[in-house]
Amino acid sequence: MPIAARAAPETWGNRVNHALLSWQVPGLETSGKSGDGNRGRSIQPVTGKWQNVTGTGSVVPFSSDAMRTDKPLLDPLPPRQATTLGLSCKRFLKQNMKITNLLLILVTLASVVIFPNGAWAEPKARMMKAVVVHQYGGSEVAKYEDTPRPEPKENEALVRVIASGVNPADPLIVSGKYAQQFGTHVPLIPGYDIAGVVEQTGSRVTKLKVGDAVYGYPLMGGGWAEHAVVTEGETAPKPKSLSFVDAAAVPLAALTAWDALIDTAQLKAGQTVLIHGGSGGVGSFAIQIAKARGARVIATASTANQDLLKHLGADVAIDYTKQKFEDVAKDVDIVLDPVGRDTLARSYAVVKKGGIICTLVARPDPAQLEKFGIRGASIAVTPNAANLAEITKLIDDKKIKPIVTQVLPLSEGVKALEQAETHHSRGKIVLKIADEPKE
Ligand SMILES: NC(=O)c1ccc[n+]([C@@H]2O[C@H](COP(=O)([O-])OP(=O)(O)OC[C@H]3O[C@@H](n4cnc5c(N)ncnc54)[C@H](OP(=O)(O)O)[C@@H]3O)[C@@H](O)[C@H]2O)c1
């Protein structure tokens, strides 16, 4: 599986519904004390200020005439007390009727002037620009449009997104091919890499603070938008040495390379690693991480990207269009495979006994693993704040850097999807959403 594939509790779709719900009729919060019968209707004056005096010995408070029902909202008062109270209320109302009516008229007029479209009953959700997918399909289904801003939950922070990375996962999610496995549903916003500034935090967020510059991998996407929500487990402080655009190229791809080489294969200094697709998003980080850990790196890419493999630090660069990698790479400790099919099939034989193949796009064949006495792993990356913080250190120590080869505006989501699904990107593509803030 190419991406996390964890069934998530909710998608952006749910988050939007939640946001819309919480924006409905906020006036009710003030009058709708629990069990008072007013919740869910319309904005009401406080109970008791307006009363319906029956004159029959009991007082039944109503919110207004419009709210009148036969069912008392409070227990009736004892008859004597009620009569006295009823009379004084009658007198009060008679004396003040003119003022009350005048006040009512003024309030009504003011509401019409201030909220001409009845907006006070249903305030509009705060909107943002985003790339939104309303139905699964090809890149053309991605629409650049206004959409409600997500509302952070208790454990989430709202981030003003400055830039968002592009990954092959984006067209895959948009296609809906694995909607069930990934737990996605439309409408959705693609975007699994963000770099931005924290604008709001939920009550259970402890580490992130408003104004923090962060980057991260939101498991359920939503990055191709002016605002996105993330949990603390999905983010880390943005590397100080990178712009937001460069930082947005890092999280998902670098975390995948880290997961495969460090967490799964447990790469050690002096080992030899074969990295297929070394010029792509994951491969370009994998080469640098392996070199930073003291490994010898053999990497593959097409003719046009041989220079990049060398620039990234590969000890041996193989042009897979001209040469069979198995003629060059032998007895390697680790293979990182982001390609699959024939490339994976031919890789088993180049791994030394006890070595490992980590594939991002397939399941290693158990028969082949057994035949060569090697191990295999299918990588399914998930957000990991601790690993991302390690990556941040390597970046700020100038050990690794993102290779951003194309920067597009947010309105070019379709173009970004088209490029990502070629599986021949050089380095990373990034959507620039807002101007770089001053830090
Ligand atoms: N399982 C996971 O958790 C996970 C996480 C991230 C990514 N993925 C998957 O891993 C794959 C790679 O991701 P990415 O972001 O690195 O993609 P990418 O940026 O599109 O890079 C793909 C790279 O593969 C190279 N390539 C294509 N055909 C090749 C071949 N036959 N032999 C060697 N190299 C070849 C391309 O180089 P040339 O242009 O020079 O051909 C390109 O550099 C995607 O399918 C993605 O969905 C999975």
Quick description:
By secondary structure, this protein is an alpha/beta fold.
Describe this structure in words.
With 439 residues, the chain is α/β, with parallel strands linked by helices. The protein folds into 3 domains: 32-114, no CATH class; 127-250 and 404-432, Medium-chain alcohol dehydrogenases, catalytic domain (Quinone Oxidoreductase, Chain A, domain 1); 253-378, Rossmann fold, CATH 3.40.50.720. Helices cover 30% and strands 21% of the residues. The strands form 4 sheets. Strands 5, 6, 7, 8, 9, 16 and 17 form a 7-stranded mixed sheet that branches. It has a 6-stranded parallel sheet with strand order 12-11-10-13-14-15, sandwiched between helices. The two termini are 38 Å apart. NADP nicotinamide-adenine-dinucleotide phosphate is lined by residues 1-3, 167-169, 253, 256, 276-277, 279-283, 300-302, 305, 320, 338-339, 343, 360-361, 379-381, 423-425.
Number of domains: 3
CATH superfamily of the largest domain: Medium-chain alcohol dehydrogenases, catalytic domain
Shape: elongated
Strand content: 15-25%
Major beta sheet summary: 7 strands, mixed
Radius of gyration over all CA atoms, rounded: 30 Å
Q: How many helix segments?
A: 13
What average pLDDT do the residues reach? 81
Enter the CATH topology name of the largest domain.
Quinone Oxidoreductase, Chain A, domain 1
Head-to-tail CA distance between termini? 38 Å
Q: Which range best describes the helical content: under 10%, 10-25%, 25-40%, 40-55%, 55-70% or over 70%?
A: 25-40%
Structure class: alpha/beta
CATH architecture of the largest domain: Alpha-Beta Complex
CATH class of the largest domain: Alpha Beta
Contiguous runs where pLDDT drops below 50 for at least 5 residues: 1-85
Bound ligand species: NADP nicotinamide-adenine-dinucleotide phosphate
Number of strands: 17
Order of helices and strands: HHEEHEEEHHEEEEHHEHEHEEHEHEHEHE
